[in-house]
Design brief:
Elements (H helix, E strand, L loop, with lengths): L2 H23 L5 H14 L5 H24 L3 E2 L12 H13 L11 H22 L3 E2 L3 H23 L12 H6 L2
Antiparallel strand pairs: 1-2
Helix pairs in contact: 1-2, 1-4, 2-4, 3-4, 3-6, 5-6
């Protein structure tokens, strides 16, 4: 992967994260999803197989939203503004998952095949992101903050290597150039 693409993706990721967290904290919950959608659309121009990249982003965003919605319903965290359905996380959380998934084909592509490292990185980075969102006012961590962060660390220790694994699958790997054979299968 070209270094400028990795750096651009890292900047894009941070921009998307802050747009979601600050937007949610400020009552502009739609700002983050719009920003992330624009940033991810621009990233489609940088991958050899944009259809597979987009499919991976959608799958990861949906899976992350399901996992986080389960933790939300369990009281691990809450939101000042309810989701459009009371038992689901707000849409800006879906955007955060899509934003995170976008890093696995760019600035975090070096995690491919290194699932233990992905697990450790997830166990550290996930709780830091949620704690940052908590400090900004986008969400509230429930109960004892250390226990809540430990639960989130376990979530990300499982989800991150799972997403790395998924990003390597032929139907979801946006880094693998399209071949004549795969063009028949790809959208």
């Amino acid at each position: 992967m070209v270094r400028w693409k990795r750096l651009l993706n890292l900047i894009s990721f941070q921009t998307g994260w802050f747009a979601c967290a600050l937007g949610a904290a400020g009552g502009w919950s739609f700002a983050g999803p719009v920003a992330v959608a624009v940033l991810l659309c621009l990233q489609l121009l940088l991958v050899p197989a944009p259809g597979r990249y987009a499919r991976f982003i959608l799958v990861a965003a949906l899976l992350g939203w399901i996992v986080d919605s389960a933790l939300y319903r369990a009281g691990v965290f809450s939101f000042p503004e309810a989701g459009f359905v009371y038992w689901l996380c707000p849409i800006w959380m879906v955007a955060l998952w899509a934003n995170f998934a976008g890093t696995l084909h760019f600035c975090l592509d070096w995690l491919r095949g290194h699932y233990w490292l992905a697990s450790v990185l997830g166990a550290i980075g996930g709780p830091l992101a949620y704690y940052g969102g908590h400090r900004l006012g986008a969400l509230q961590l429930g109960g004892s903050i250390p226990i809540t962060l430990a639960i989130i660390a376990i979530e990300y220790a499982v989800v991150t290597p799972s997403f790395v694994f998924l990003s390597e699958r032929p139907g979801l790997d946006g880094l693998r150039p399209a071949t004549a054979e795969s063009q028949v299968l790809a959208p």
